[in-house]
Amino acid sequence: MAETMTNGNSQTYVGTRTIRPDGADKVTGRARFGADFNLPGQLIGRVLRSPHPHARIVSIDTSKAEALPGVKAVVTRDDFADQSSEFIPAGEMMMNYKDVVRNVMAREKALYEGHAVAAVAAASVAIARRALKLIEVKYEVLPHVIDVVEAMQPGAPLLHDDLFTVGVEPKPEKPSNIAKRVEIKQGDIEVGFKKADLVIEREFKTAPVHQGYIEPHAALASVSEDGSTELWCTTQGHFIVRAHCARLLGLDIGKVRVTASEIGGGFGGKTVVYLEPLAIALSRKAKRPVKMVMSREEVFKASGPTSGATVRVKLGVTKDGKFVAAFAELKYQAGAFQGSPVQPGVMCAFAPYDIEHVHVIGYDVVSNRPKVAAYRAPGAPISEYAVESVVDEIAKKLEIDPIDLRMQNAAHEGTKAAYGPKFGPVGLEETLNAIKKTEHWNAPLRKWQGRGVASGFWFNIGGETCASLTVNEDGTISLMAGTPDVGGLRASLAAVAADELGVPYDKVRPIIGDTGSVGFNFLTGGSRSAFSGSMAIVEAAKQIKAELCARACKLWEAQPDQVEFSGGSVRPLGALAEKVKPMSVADFAKVAGKTGGPIGGVGRINAQGAGPSFGTHLVDLEVDPETGRVTVLRYTVAQDAGRALHPAYVEGQFQGGAVQGIGWALNEEYIYGDDGKLQNAGFLDYRMPVASDVPMIDAILVEVANPKHPYGVRGVGETPIVPPLGAIANAMEAATGIRFTELPMSPPKVLKALKEKGLSRA
Amino acid sequence: MRYEAPGSLEGAVALLAGATGDARVLAGGTDLLVQMRADIVDPELIVDIKKIPETRAITEEKGGWRVGAAVTGAELKEHARLRKAWPGVVEAANLIGSTQVQGRATLGGNLCNGSPAADSVPALIAAGAVTTMAGPQGTRDLPVEDVMLGPRKLALRKGEFIVSFLLPPRPKGSSDAYLRFIPRTEMDIAVVGAGVSLTVDGGGTITAARVGLGAVAARVLLVAEAAQAIIGSRLDEAAQERLSAAARAACRPIDDKRGTTEFRIDVAGVLTRRAALIALDRARTS
Amino acid sequence: MAKHHIEATVNGDAVEFLCETEETLLDVLRDTLHLTGSKEGCASGDCGACSVMLNGRLVCSCLVLGCEVGGQKIETIEGMAAGETLHPLQQQFLKSAALQCGICTPGFLVASKALLERTPDPTETEVRYWLAGNLCRCTGYDKIVSAVMDTAAAMRKG
């Protein structure tokens, strides 16, 4: 069993369940989220949105709105300079500025119902609402296409006449809705399938789902006459918001200062900009602060759900259960502009398994729906749902235990993943074993109850990170991080800083700095903020420790090899110990001015070495054969965290992701009419799990240290949403004998399938 | 937009009858406020009836129960004797929305919102509840099943509003039950709602019954054939089959984002049977 | 038309404010009284993030008009702690890590407090059904439910 990695410190706080430093504010209502900020003299901004899923915007007449008393500014496409084509990272996906400026404000066409067409800033909500009604937009309605397979057909309504499929040879002459074809290859699947004793091929379909964060998008912008811009917004990445807004509005990055509010959930959906450029443009025009908040309906219609998709999987296996060949074709719908997560979907599809011959193809397809944004392990839940379903079917056909089958083929240290890298130490086998050892695995089941298991993978990222530690005059530590804290980051970083510097946990006060106060940080996404942030804090602490040792040497007239920092103090070694006493961080703080000035350290890194996190989920459910209703009875998650800096918040990631997966599998979906309009743009009919829908989620923390991180940390936030879809589909098969290849497995679908098989007495 | 909160029936009637534009009654507000925010309605006048004592009282009346139209679901649940007499009506009102919504939602509002999927209405219809309305021509009574004519279409005349509901007296051995189908466990609009009220004699035979079905037609249905299927029976398997078949036959549902036609018909049969069994069990032990 | 002039009690303090007819209690709390602890997640009564107590009754403040609350008693998250001492539920939520992003937390705390005042010994099922009107997307509800049950047990011990 590997030794727990501690970076040489005695572990007082890392790995324990400390109280989060931002906790008191969060439980008293004091914490300020995006819509909780106000500035004197602020105006209210509202957006006019296209009622049509596809239309040419012939003209926009804002004169009547501008004339309404109380309206201080109106913006349209004319207020945003066009952008040339340039791809940039958006979380773990890519986006193109030419598309971004068009998504933020429609230009030539409205490409989905809800697409922003104009925005106003007015003295009150009532005036803003009235002003929107006075804007006259002439639309030339065009035929629309919603379904991904339909959108791929030649002759489908065309969204962009300059979109030519990338990744096919020869280059297409005609534009289409297929933006990109991607593929990965390993070995030769023709050879592989010939070796197989059993080949199973299945096609699966999923619907678009939304991240479902409870806090709508909100921004408050204030632009001064000299062009300096202040922005408060709820976001997963305020440096990214700054970059996008500067680019879209032609501002110097240094003149834009973005403060991230507390964030009420993101899950990838707050890695892009919607209201922020509009609020800045309006404020610039009105010369007053402008506050904008999305309604829940706007969130559903005009932010970024994840793709719906069609996935075909073909898996070949020997009669002993060895996977020999794997093929998959993924068609993911990107919404109105290119950029679905088909690439990561392709990468992750077979990643949990060591397979010699692999070929995965993916298509990125546009359609008249909102532009998709990242959703927690973007792309992977969809492709891995399909693969885990086929793996389960193979286990049943070969009469091999589903955990044993996965174990036999599990990726481990040294496995070369089909998407490129060779894995270092990874914990899939450990999670499979952990599940197999649970009482849950062996608990008895009754008729109409079923048990399903599935594994999942996410690669995780590192990235640019800056974080600082400052020693205050009284020995307390100010910690400044630069990625918004979605749920426990400050607690985790404070524990690391406290252990590194040997100070009490509650003497470390962490804040998330604004873009003017701390250096560049990539956003919170890719399960990177604790992984990278803690690395940067270790670096900052290292600098402080080195500085204090240097000061001690001066004070004690000693050589560097006569002192060392340990247990929170600089300690004299050897003979020196008889002459002088150790000095703690607080001791140095008291005499900082006399010994060289303020004490601090800044970690500025591009964190490398992110370790993948594997997870295995186990679920029991019961089906009501007369109504098709599914009840989740029991749920266990085992996932490799590498090292849990704060076990409770790591467990929280496991539990939250599992429940999002339950919703995705059973009831969540975007429902469109034939008119291309969204029918369920609210929490009433977009059915996310409520407290009575789910049981306790047992969380098993597996720790296979990531050797590339000083504490062994792996990102954990995304993997939890990957296995549930497959686990639940597998449990449904066990309960009903029916393989559901379409999500969500909502009651009308389940009852229909049961009746078709003669299994229901309804 | 005007807001008035009269303290008397006459005051409310005068306001509603005299309104020139769209006037809405406000009780719990759990539908009205949502529709206002969504720009579905834009009333000129809101008449809050919660200050009128007759709309807020629960009283025994000639062996039955008179329940004010603005009594909340939560208050119904807290009334032990009413809950004992009419468990189906009370549980139906307490399935609307969430705990928070039940703290405000009322029987009057649930009926007058005019949704065929309203949770309390099938139970009220099964109960044989009768509304008392006040209007410019005085008060009048109307059975609940005759109030909702279609989606958002009510039999109320201009200036009229519902003051209270009368749950009729009934003999010993009577009880009721309400079941609804929703895909989650809470919070959804009923995809099917089934209310059954019945009386059973000492020998176990059902001597009276009424069945209300919601969300399966343009209005909430009183299904006489379903009641007939079980009156005179002991709700044995054959009677249950007849009951389910009658319930299914009465459905004229739509296909929408909450359920398909086929699904609603199937589930109507299942829920009616299950609700009847619960009502019978309660009636036997009452 | 002229705004309504309303006098009410919020967290024990007498308040007075002006509001338009169409403003909800949530709008008034947040925008006029500057009590931003109650959150708007949906404005349609489906998420519970705006939960407050109105005359001792748990309600969604987005479903109550500001002009309806004249003379009435409102309790929000801001009134839950007793001076510097957090309510046992607030303390337990922190101990149990029953919050991640925290946006739903005020609603859950107000709703849970209402539950425990009425039912000091709830079962897990009772807790889940009582809180079904409070949406959380981060925690999967597990630690929230544990925190409420643990607080109930601790409060029963006295």
Description:
With 762 residues, chain A is of the alpha+beta class. Among the domains of chain A are: 5-31 and 462-607, Aldehyde Oxidoreductase, domain 4, CATH 3.30.365.10; 425-457 and 613-756, Aldehyde oxidase/xanthine dehydrogenase, molybdopterin binding domain (Aldehyde Oxidoreductase, domain 4, 2-Layer Sandwich). In chain A, 28% of the residues lie in helices and 25% in strands. In chain A, the strands form seven sheets. Chain A has a seven-stranded mixed beta sheet, sandwiched between helices. With 286 residues, chain B is of the alpha+beta class. Chain B has helices at residues 9-18, 32-37, 73-78, 80-85, 87-93, 99-102, 107-112, 120-127, 224-230, 237-250, 261-285; strands at residues 2-4, 23-26, 45-48, 58-61, 64-68, 130-135, 138-143, 148-150, 153-154, 161-167, 174-181, 192-200, 206-214, 221-222. Chain C is of the alpha+beta class. Chain C folds into two domains: 4-78, Beta-grasp domain (Ubiquitin-like (UB roll)); 88-157, [2Fe-2S]-binding domain (DNA polymerase, domain 1). In chain C, strands 2-1-5-3-4 form a five-stranded mixed beta sheet, sandwiched between helices. The model of chain C has no long low-confidence stretch (mean pLDDT 97). Classes of the chains: A alpha+beta (762), B alpha+beta (286), C alpha+beta (158). Chains in contact: A-B, A-C, B-C. The A-B interface holds A 297, 626-629, 631, 666-667, 671, 679-680, 683-685, 687, 689-690, 692-693, 746-748, 751-752, 755, 760, 762 and B 38, 181, 183-189, 191, 256-260, 262-263, 266-267, 269-271.
